[in-house]
Design a protein that fits this description.
Number of helices: 11
Oligomer: single chain
CATH topology: TIM Barrel
Strand order of the largest sheet: 1-2-3-4-5-6-7-8
Shape: globular
CATH architecture: Alpha-Beta Barrel
Number of domains: 1
CATH class: Alpha Beta
Distance between the termini: 19 Å
Structural class: alpha/beta
Helix content: 40-55%
Bound molecules: 2-phosphoglycolic acid
CATH superfamily: Aldolase class I
Length: about 250
């Protein structure tokens, strides 16, 4: 099965409604729709109902940057996967390093959120990756293995086919310092090997693994040319219509 290529824009806590609308409107006409290509934007939660209006007549999909793992209840400030579903989200990021580091999200929590999302028919893009200190201490493989395996432990087997992973080395996020295509491919191969061990060849060959961390027009083509890099999760460069559309065109 050919893997889906996903070019995703993580807006983080940026853009006001007018700015988001301008960005999406220029994106809608900026690239050619291709088979197997999925372009997804992740606006801040308050912009999601607007995104639905901006994007309804386009192939662009949208999703949330985070969610909680319960349907409803006393979780002040949180957002349920059920609400995301009703707002038309196709995807949700889970376990972004900013969530793991700043909000102390554990592997277990990331797993529970992933399960709650697949129950709602929303595709979780599970972010994994190591800090610079972990890479220097050569414990990055171990860390990534734990992050990936905990998702397989939490998510029911029938839904594994709906998982997407994103390798985002923390040292490359927002720093302008990209992993070289070779460094990224090494980790992507490693993640695919873990998936293969957990779930067999069919799923390992079908699950998309994106790269994120200072992806930009100048490095997108080379990153996407790697055998195991199936798309990009773009932060800073996704806020600029021209840059994000040039990244899409690099596919
Ligand atoms: P960046 O962010 O492209 O600005 O490095 C990527 C991300 O955090 O998803």
């Amino acid at each position: 099965m050919a893997r889906k290529t996903i070019i995703a824009g993580n807006w983080k806590m940026n853009l006001l409604p007018e700015e988001g609308e301008m960005l999406v409107v220029s994106l809608k006409t900026a690239f050619e729709n291709k088979k197997n290509l999925e372009v997804v934007v992740f606006p801040p939660i308050g912009l999601i109902p607007f995104a639905r209006e901006w994007i309804y007549d386009s192939v662009i999909r949208y999703g949330a940057q985070n969610c909680w793992h319960e349907v409803s209840g006393p979780y002040t400030g949180e957002t349920s996967p059920e609400l995301l579903k009703s707002l038309g989200c196709s995807y949700c990021l889970v376990g972004h390093s900013e969530r793991r580091e700043i909000f102390e999200e554990s592997n277990e929590l990331v797993g529970r959120k992933s399960q709650a999302l697949v129950e709602m028919g929303i595709i979780p893009i599970v972010c994994v990756g190591e800090s610079l200190a972990e890479r220097e201490a050569a414990i990055h493989f171990e860390k990534i293995q734990q992050q990936v395996e905990s998702v397989f432990e939490a998510v029911e087997k029938e839904s594994w086919i709906h998982l997407v992973f994103a390798y985002e080395p923390i040292w490359a996020i927002g720093t302008g310092k990209t992993a070289t295509p070779k460094q990224a491919e090494e980790i992507h191969q490693f993640i695919r090997k873990i998936i293969r061990q957990k779930s067999g060849d069919v799923l390992a060959d079908a699950i998309s693994i994106l790269y994120g961390g200072s992806a930009k027009p100048g490095n997108a083509e080379e990153l996407l040319a790697q055998d195991n890099i199936d798309g990009l999760l773009v932060g800073g460069a996704s806020l600029v219509a021209e840059d994000f559309s040039n990244i899409i065109k690099a596919y």
